[in-house]
Amino acid sequence: MNTALPVLTGIGSVTPYGPLAGLIPAEPLEPSAITAWTTPGLRRAYMVKPFHPAGIVPGLKTRRLDRLSAWAMVASSLALQDAGVDLNLMDRSRIAVFFATGFGCVELTEAFYQSAATNGWAGTDPITFPETLGNAPASHVALFHRLQGPNITISSKSFAAESALLQAASLLRHGQADLVIVLAGDTLTRAVYEWYEVAQLLAPACFNQEPLSSAPGFMPSEGVVAMVMEAAGRPAARSYAALRAGRWAMGGDARSSVHQLLGDDLPDFIICASNGMPCSSNSLTCSVRNLDGEGAKIFPAQPVAEGMGDAGALLHLLLALSKQPGPGEALLLGTSAYGGFAALRLELF
Per residue in 79-116, is it b (16+ CB within 10 Å) or e — as a string? Predict the structure, then answer.
């Protein structure tokens, strides 16, 4: 392992699998019927089951928070626990937070605007408004852990999570932080689900008990994944993977860019992180897989992660690590129906 590379040393998550530290058990996951709000007939999604955050992280107070902020605080705590990090022994001004999201705190944003529509602007709750900001989850993570380093929220179309990983690694490489907590996630609300439905983006299985098929559309999901990234060398630190290089763009020659990124180090694995486009069958994936006549094993996009959209790449990576593809070079390849690509070259341990 190159000791200069940023390394993923801890994982925490709040997903439809539940709140967990470390890897997710490799077991089947079925979507559930939505009961959090009234629906016109059966509607299904991958939902996070209600839980008590303070029961997972003692002392955590979340009464006025959007679920996204609460989940981010739980996931970050579980990731630090998994990494074996004692913050009391570290310089908290050298610990950064990166948060990637597609919709931000949409739950309380929705509630705020609904109250304005019902009661007028003068009748809205001023305490709720700060929690509608997209950077609220990252701020709460920093406040709860008393972190004073860079605090950045990313919401870039299709590749928010990949961008967060790349920017976090850059911060470490340039010596601007000793440790970074990278988070990505979104919540699923009634308004978001109904928008998906009106836009005809949902899979047929969202409306019946049939299994997901190759038909167009996806099954919506929600959750937050947190990963601890740090420079290699901390005693007793576990290493899940190292980030060697990466790039993303919304245009240009994707195949040429990915081939330049890989050089002569062809990937043993391609981890698909699709955002509306089937990664495993698109031309970019196929061209990388068959570069110079070599083949790479494809870990296909997982429906529960695909349903998280722009912020799903961390969950795609976590599920791939949980399936134990084995040590070797890997390419986390994000593709999008809107064009562009994101490619991260990883070393798996």
Answer: bbebbebeeeeeeeebbbbbbbbbbbbbbbbbbbeeee
Backbone angles phi, psi at 107, to 5 degrees: -65, -55
Distance CA 190, CA 192 (A): 6
- Rounded to 10 degrees, what is the CA torsion of 233, 238, 241, 243? -30
Over residues 214-249, the pLDDT tens digits come to: 778 889 999 999 999 998 767 767 899 999 988 887
Long-range (24+ apart) CB contacts under 8 A made by 34-39 are 34/193, 36/190, 37/190
Which DSSP symbol is given to 49?
P
339 vs 249: CA distance, rounded Å: 9
This model's pTM is above 0.85:
yes
Measure the CA–CA gap between 22 and 74, rounded to whole angstroms.
13
Question: Within 13 Å and on the Cβ side, how many CA atoms surround 340?
Answer: 19
d(CA 273, CA 123): 43
What would the pLDDT profile of 72-114 be if each residue is shown by its tens digit?
999 999 999 999 999 999 999 999 999 999 998 888 888 787 8
Residue linked to tokens 């992180």: 273
Concatenate the DSSP letters of all residues of 70-108 into one string. Answer: HHHHHHHHHHHHHHT--GGGS-GGGEEEEEE-SS-SHHH
Partnered with residue 61 across adjacent β-strands are none
Q: Identify which of 299, 312, 318, 310 has the alpha carbon closest to the alpha carbon of residue 340.
A: 310
Q: E strands of the chain, at which residues?
A: 6-15, 18-21, 32-33, 44-45, 95-100, 151-154, 179-186, 223-231, 241-249, 269-275, 297-299, 328-336, 341-348
User: How many residues in total does the chain contain?
Assistant: 349
Stated as kind and residue range, the H or E segment containing 59 is: none
Helix axes 106-119, 190-198, angle to 10 degrees: 90
